[in-house]
Structures are given as C-alpha cells and as structure tokens.
C-alpha cells in the first residue's frame, strides 16, 4: 500500500469517526434537552397541583364560615350586630381574599362586616 492510499484511508476513517462523534453528541444533546423539558413539565405540574390544593383548602374554610353563619340563623338564634362583628373579625383575621362578610337572612343583607366601603349593599335583596 502506498503512502497516498494510507493517507486517504486515514482521512476516510477520521471523517467517519468525526461523523460518528457528531451524531452521538447531537443524540446526547437531544436527550439532555428532553430531560430538562420533562423536569420543567413536572415542576409546572407540581406547582399547579399545589396551587389547586391551596385554593380548595381556602374555599373549604370560607364555606365552613358560611355554613357556620347558616347554622346559627337556621337554629333560630338571633345574632346581634356586635356578635356578628366579633365572629366576622375572628374569621377574617389575616385573610386578604374575602373583603366583607354579609348576613342576609331571607336574601336581604342586614349586617355587613366591614361596613366601610360596603354601605350600598346594606338592605339589598340578593334574591
């Protein structure tokens, strides 16, 4: 075999080796990218599920507060404005979502906590 043929074979082998390494590198990059995408999808899914659980928990607490007032009224107990204010204050403490509690037996708003800014709702027939 001549020197030129050996050099040509070496170039061909080098070219094949380069192409093989290039294909392997692209495959690895693709696998890394898919792994990162899957990680981000899992992270987003976890965040969404966590947020849903927190919202459901918060809604349950608000529904419990509503149910509490409903049970008081249904039992025939006459709640005074001071009692309503005290109970509403305790339920609202450190909660920024609910702006006001309204007591509306038979659909007519008779009491509001926090009254400030909500005066227009007083006496409103919600039904």
Task: Give the helices and strands, then pairings.
Layout: H1 3-74, H2 81-92, E1 101-103, E2 111-113
Antiparallel strand pairs: 1-2
In words, what does this structure look like?
The protein folds into two domains: 1-75; 78-127, no CATH class. Helix content is 66%, strand content 5%. It has helices at 3-74, 81-92; strands spanning 101-103, 111-113. It has a two-stranded antiparallel ribbon. A hairpin with a 7-residue loop joins strand 1 (101-103) and strand 2. The longest helix has 72 residues, at 3-74. The protein is rod-shaped and about 110 Å long. It starts with a helix and ends in a 14-residue tail after the last strand.
Distance between termini?
A: 101 Å
* Adjacency order of strands in the biggest sheet: 1-2
Which stretches are poorly predicted, pLDDT < 50 over at least 5 residues?
none
What Rg is obtained from the alpha carbons, in whole angstroms? 35 Å
**Please, how many domains?**
2
Which band does the percent of strand residues land in?
A: under 5%
What global shape is seen? rod-shaped
Task: Please state the structural category.
Answer: mainly alpha
Overall strand count: 2
Helix share of residues?
55-70%
Compute the number of helices. Answer: 2
Mean pLDDT: 86
What's the helix-strand series? HHEE
Q: Biggest sheet, in brief?
A: 2 strands, antiparallel
């Amino acid at each position: 075999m001549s020197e030129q043929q050996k050099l040509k074979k070496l170039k061909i082998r080098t070219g094949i080796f380069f192409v093989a390494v290039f294909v392997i590198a692209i495959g690895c990059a693709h696998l890394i990218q898919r792994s990162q995408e899957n990680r981000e999808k899992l992270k987003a899914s976890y965040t969404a599920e966590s947020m849903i659980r927190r919202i459901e928990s918060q809604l349950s607490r608000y529904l419990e507060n509503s149910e509490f007032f409903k049970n008081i009224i249904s039992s025939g107990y006459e709640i005074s404005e001071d009692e309503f204010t005290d109970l509403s204050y305790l339920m609202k403490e450190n909660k920024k979502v609910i702006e006001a509690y309204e007591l509306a037996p038979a659909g007519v708003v008779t009491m509001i906590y926090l009254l400030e800014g909500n005066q227009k709702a007083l006496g409103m027939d919600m039904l």
